[in-house]
């Protein structure tokens, strides 16, 4: 998400790890590891509190579940995994502070997160300077992996330590436009965003593709993320003659926004990206969101044969909060770090390298495994090679999958 075309969304899961080149503090390494265990920590950064906590807690719990599974299976002999979770409250400043704290923890070899692309922008350099692997299960902003000139097809990877298991808004925004125009048969859309990196970027990509397809943009506007009264923009939508609305942003504002748009007289579907794909969106809309649409990365976890064990294990673990939209992607993000640790140990004669953090980063580009969300591997930019997306619609007070597919544009 979150900062984040033909494609369909579903669930997302991301992980970022952290570890310094100095190895693990207080841990046994090399030949001294015999008969003991080395503590290896995977950092997690997400909004664990605040209005996006429903998503953040799913990220944290899913990464935790991955470490528990690795320990249970003794996946890396001599290594015990755990997580260190930091709460960024979806705030970029807090994210940067968390990144610095995780870098300073010598046991941290990689970090899963964050949720928001705007937060990731403040963390990337901190992790990269420390050669600490970051894997986001939810970031969708193209700039994070392709550089500032990605819109001109000039791709330059800014940070070698950055990876993600979620696909980007280039795919998500274009797919949404294609679905809305070609399949939902909507031709006149009103575009709104929250002025944040994720929302504004996603809305811009959607708008460009929608116009390219032959659609008309009836109007465009911005809202402030902390506002609750959207009556002014709702009135504009109602008077514009738009047959649909596209919103670039997240569910805390999207729910009240769609409610107020309908109450203003515009009985039209509101569509958004993975940032609104959460049950909280429906609650916040006062159940006035039937027919609204959202794209999300991947396919519904509940429908993936590859995710059956994850769903069962998550339930059995007794987590109080749901794994939410990014649970599967978060599990896979954490597991990618675990796989990199495994490879680093195997390539060191079965011993934990003293520079494990650096070795993990070197192994990440070669990670390739069958995960919760499908095959997990990364391209030369650190982006996931899995381009599957799903479109969801609110029906009877619940999100229902409408169409899943792989983007080939």
What does this structure look like?
There is one protein chain. Helix content is 36%, strand content 21%. It has 409 residues and is of the alpha/beta class. It has 2 domains: 16-168 and 304-377, Rossmann fold, CATH 3.40.50; 170-297 and 388-406, Response regulator (Rossmann fold, 3-Layer(aba) Sandwich), CATH 3.40.50. The strands form 3 sheets. Strands 8-7-9-10-11-14-15 form a 7-stranded mixed beta sheet, with helices on both faces. Strands 1, 2, 3, 4, 5 and 6 form a 6-stranded mixed beta sheet that branches. Helix 2 (92-104) runs parallel beside helix 3 and helix 5 crosses helix 6 (197-212). The longest helix is centred in the first third of the chain and has 20 residues, at 53-72. It is elongated, with a radius of gyration of 21 Å. The relative contact order is 0.20. Residues 3-35 have low confidence and may be disordered.
In short:
The chain is α/β, with parallel strands linked by helices and 409 residues long.
Secondary structure layout plus pairing:
Elements: E1 16-18, E2 38-46, H1 53-72, E3 79-87, H2 92-104, E4 108-112, H3 117-129, E5 133-136, H4 143-146, E6 162-164, H5 169-183, E7 188-193, H6 197-212, E8 216-222, H7 231-240, E9 244-248, H8 251-263, E10 270-272, H9 279-284, E11 293-297, H10 308-317, H11 327-346, H12 356-364, E12 368-371, E13 374-377, E14 388-395, E15 398-406
Parallel strand pairs: 2-3, 2-4, 4-5, 5-6, 7-8, 7-9, 9-10, 10-11
Antiparallel strand pairs: 1-4, 11-14, 12-13, 14-15
Helix pairs in contact: 1-11, 2-3, 5-6, 7-8, 11-12
